[in-house]
Amino acid sequence: MVLTDLPAAQTWTNWAGNQSFTPGYAAAPRDEEELAALVREASERGAGVRVAGARHSFTPIVETDGLLLDLSALRGVIEADRTRKRATALSGTLIRDFYEPLAREGLALKNQGDIDTQQIAGAVSTATHGSGIRNTCFSGVVRGVRLVTPTGEVREIDESEPELLRAAQVSIGMLGVMTRLELEVTDAYRLTEQIDLWPWGEVLER
Fold first, then answer.
1. Is residue 2 very low, low, confident or very high in pLDDT (cuts 50, 70, 90)?
2. Are residues 54 and 94 in the same domain?
């Protein structure tokens, strides 16, 4: 597959409808090898490369007149390690895809926000928040990433390169296109929801 063989790109719009643009090219690679070839060619042509994720950003973070990638095909939890408290998943894996594979091993995500339809690489790369002031956002539990660099090289970054790993945790795509991530997870737990209805006067007092 080469860029000139790709069908004409259509207008891309985010979920909120406040960002729209038409990239020069758009592709949905089926695997890492195909992804690497697309990135390499785009780089050789001097075209920018961005990844669309699940369209949940309010900002023009993915806007490009170059190549826009859809990594929906790179989806799935590859491993859930109960002993190490780690989970490995492909970049297009939705947050909600983690629930059952982790639960089967007695594990759970440490934290998340109220939206679980985001792709994990996008949620990590943009420092998507979780819930609670004592918990880190998603990027804070990343312990390793695998990515395709602008030259098409596949690079693995883990805790043996702490400074580079910290850069990758909220890279906004600047180090390359993530294809796999390793997250620190925790033992399974239950949450209790409490809903209170207060008179307006009590709300002001409290």
1. low
2. no
